[in-house]
Amino acid sequence: MTTGPTTPASRPLLGCIADDFTGATDLANNLVRAGMRVVQCIGIPRQEIDNADAVVIALKSRTIPAAEAVAQSVAALDWLRSAGCGQFYFKVCSTFDSTDQGNIGPVAEALLARLGASFCCVTPAFPENGRTVFKGHLFVGDVLLSDSGMRDHPLTPMRDPNLVRVMQAQSRGGVALIPHEVVRRGSEAIAVRMRELEAAGARFGVVDAIADADLLAMGRALRGAPLVVAGSGVAIGLPQNHGIAPSAQASALPAPRGARAVLSGSCSQATNQQVREFIQAGLPAFAIDPLRIAAGDDVVAQALAWADARLGDRPLLVYSSAAAEDVKAVQQQLGVEAAGSMVEGVLAAIGRGLVERGAGQLVVAGGETSGAVVQALGVEQMRIGPQIDPGVPWCHAWSPVCGDAIHIALKSGNFGAPDFFIKAFALLAA
């Protein structure tokens, strides 16, 4: 393995803004794998960041009103600029989760304006994790985005795979394509196409990418570009521009301690399969019923009483994950936002209770759930460690809830192999 710089930059080189917490760790994970030392912050930091080549600010802005998302993202950009970052990365979901109103387009345009720039590249491609873009269309594995499980996402259903069209619907500026026939010719061809589109008045260029080599070429073409809007994939191509190469030191974390637990609020197909795998392995699991919460049951107390007898010997799981038709039935009774916020609040309170009871290794599944749990634990910064599965690393963070550091993994709902929940703890123990 090639070794990168022995010490990180005195000031961070790359400043990143992520629109949810699991997306932030996904991005940070790829930067670490490429050799950067990365600190992820929960919201805008209240202090300077030391010993980091990149800083990732995790927001919970993917589904809030566009004006609020813009305000939060611009504030994060201002902090990163004051910290000395020279290039900026707006991290969006690899399935481009959004609506015709945003929030990707409005935030990207606001960031460009704040930087005094007029053009940037856009791509959610992450081939290693089954996300590819060809002729401007996003594929999830072997199917178009519109044919994937994202078609029925409860908050941001994605039924148009054409990213040029999706981006144009939520942007004021023009959107054009940088096709694979250009990308496969390498970084200089990409850079020329970028200049041509900018000169023609386009604001965004959606970039095709079907392999890691495409992302590496794109990374080289983006050297000096003020902003990139992307999933986590492009991150593998940016550290090379600073002479940084992969290093085992970049992902080193302290040894784990404490009991092991999983909190799962995602209802994606991947997470539902992971829940089934965990239960089929004979490991203890407690199901959260949103209707019981709405009826006034103290589900938090019930779950923690259940966990008290089981915490410590084996990993345990507390989950609200369910099939799409079951989720829709609950949403029809309680409302989409009410159902989601109730479950997130309960899982966050359970997570806090588990950490108070000695859990020191925590896996959280689902972007909204991860945000709620991390905030409940009082976590402000996380050092990014080794990858569990593509897009999901272990992290190390101080939690005032227990007065100690914990290991935590924040998993996007769509990510991870079927045995992810079990494999995660085995990796940390190795």
Any overview of this molecule?
It is a single chain. By secondary structure, this protein is an alpha/beta fold. The chain has two domains: 14-247, 3-Layer(aba) Sandwich (Rossmann fold); 253-429, Molybdenum Cofactor Biosythetic Enzyme, Chain A (3-Layer(aba) Sandwich). Helices cover 36% and strands 22% of the residues. It contains 14 helices and 18 strands. The strands form two sheets. The protein has a 15-stranded mixed β-sheet, with helices on both faces. A hairpin with a 2-residue loop joins strand 7 (137-140) and strand 8. Helix 11 packs across helix 12. The longest helix has 21 residues, at 336-356.
Secondary-structure blueprint of this entry?
Elements (H helix, E strand, L loop, with lengths): L13 E5 L2 H13 L4 E5 L11 E5 L7 H17 L4 E5 L12 H12 L4 E4 L7 E4 L2 E4 L2 E2 L18 H7 L4 E5 L1 H4 L3 H13 L2 E6 L4 H10 L5 E4 L28 E6 L4 H12 L4 E3 L2 H5 L4 H10 L7 E4 L4 H11 L1 H21 L2 E7 L1 H10 L4 E9 L2 E8 L4 E8 L8 H10 L1
Parallel strand pairs: 1-3, 1-4, 2-3, 4-11, 5-10, 5-11, 9-10, 12-14, 12-15, 13-14, 15-18
Antiparallel strand pairs: 2-16, 6-7, 7-8, 16-17, 17-18
Helix pairs in contact: 2-3, 6-7, 10-12, 11-12, 12-13
Identify the notable features of this structure and list them briefly.
2 domains; 15-stranded mixed sheet; 14 helices; single chain; Rossmann fold; 430 residues
Share of helical residues: 25-40%
Shape: globular
Largest sheet: 15 strands, mixed
Based on helices, strands and strand pairing, what is the structural class?
alpha/beta
